[in-house]
C-alpha cells in the first residue's frame, strides 16, 4: 500500500542456516522491474513501519500471488 509499484505481496518465513529468514514475494506493475533501488525502497518502508526482524532477507518478483476463492493468500503454494 505504501509503495505504488507493488500491487500485491506475501511474506513467508524460510528456514535458513539454523534460523528463519523472511522472504518477500512481490507482484509489481507491468512496467516495473525489481532493481536494487526498488528493493532498497521496499526494505526502508518495512524497516520504518515494523521491526528490523521483519525486513526481508530476499525479495522475489512474481507474476501472481496465489489466492483461494475467498481471496485469502495461499501461503502453502508459495
Number of strands: 3
For the biggest β-sheet, the strand order reads 1-2-3
> Percent of residues in beta strands?
25-35%
- CATH homologous superfamily name? ANL, C-terminal domain
Number of helical elements: 1
The gross shape turns out to be globular
Write the layout of secondary structure elements.
Elements: E1 6-16, E2 19-28, H1 36-49, E3 58-61
Parallel strand pairs: 2-3
Antiparallel strand pairs: 1-2
Task: Describe the model.
With 78 residues, the protein is an alpha+beta fold. The protein has a single domain (6-65), classed as ANL, C-terminal domain (GMP Synthetase, Chain A, domain 3, 2-Layer Sandwich). Helix content is 18%, strand content 32%. It has one helix and three strands; from the N terminus they run E-E-H-E. The protein has one helix spanning 36-49, and strands spanning 6-16, 19-28, 58-61. Strands 1-2-3 form a three-stranded mixed β-sheet, with no helix packed on it. It is globular and about 35 Å long. The two termini are 21 Å apart. The mean pLDDT is 91.
Amino acid at each position: 500500500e505504501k509503495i505504488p509499484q507493488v500491487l500485491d505481496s506475501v511474506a513467508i518465513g524460510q528456514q535458513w542456516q539454523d534460523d528463519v529468514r523472511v522472504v518477500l514475494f512481490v507482484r509489481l506493475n507491468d512496467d516495473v522491474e525489481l532493481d536494487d533501488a526498488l528493493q532498497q525502497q521496499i526494505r526502508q518502508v518495512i524497516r520504518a513501519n515494523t521491526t528490523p526482524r521483519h525486513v526481508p532477507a530476499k525479495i522475489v518478483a512474481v507474476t501472481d500471488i496465489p489466492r483461494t476463492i475467498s481471496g485469502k493468500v495461499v501461503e502453502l503454494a508459495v
